[in-house]
Amino acid sequence: MSLVLSGMSSMAQVEENLASADSSSPGLLTPTEVEVVDQVAAAYEKLRPIPCTQCGYCMPCPSDVNIQRVLDIYNKSVAFANPAEGKRLYGFLKESERAGGYAECLECEGKCPQEVPVHEWMNRIKQEFGS
Predict the structure, then answer these.
(1) How far apart, in whole angstroms, are the C-alpha atoms of residue 101 and residue 47?
(2) Distance between CA 120 and CA 99 in Å, rounded?
(3) Rounded CA separation 79/22 (Å)
(4) Do residues 70 and 93 make contact, with C-beta atoms less than 8 angstroms apart?
(5) Are 57 and 112 in contact (CB under 8 A)?
């Protein structure tokens, strides 16, 4: 697959992306390399239970919850097997930005390209980290 990434801010970045696209083509990886990539992707997905890409489409939250930050803190606490650090980082958020303020209007879920069930995760995070 060839594609040009968005978010370029200079002509040099555009040229770099074009050069990368020109040098890519299907079949560059051996079947063994594809299997390794698949194994790494599966391992990574286990470390990131919430498939949030931090795109920010869910923001701003009408309830002032910092949805993407809350989800990111939770994912990192799971990835690094450190719930205590997750709770510590969560504690730095303003109370209004925490999961306890989530009103379940579901506006964010309608905007999420990853179809993250935000209300389910906010309830779980609220239980694990507190309001």
Answers:
(1) 26
(2) 11
(3) 35
(4) yes
(5) yes
How far is the CA of 87 from the CAs of 9, 23, 62, 69, 95, in angstroms?
A: 36, 45, 24, 13, 13
For residue 54, how far is the Cα from the chain centroid? 4
Give the pLDDT confidence of 5-57 residue by residue, as tens digits.
667 788 998 888 788 777 777 778 899 999 999 999 898 888 889 999 999 99
- The one-character DSSP state at 80 is T
The closest of 113, 106, 120, 104 to 71, measured between CA atoms, is 120
Structure tokens at 61: 């939250």
Please report the pLDDT score of residue 5 as a whole number: 62
Structure tokens that stand for 17 in this block: 């992306």
- Length of the chain equals 131
Q: Are 58 and 67 in contact (CB under 8 A)?
A: yes
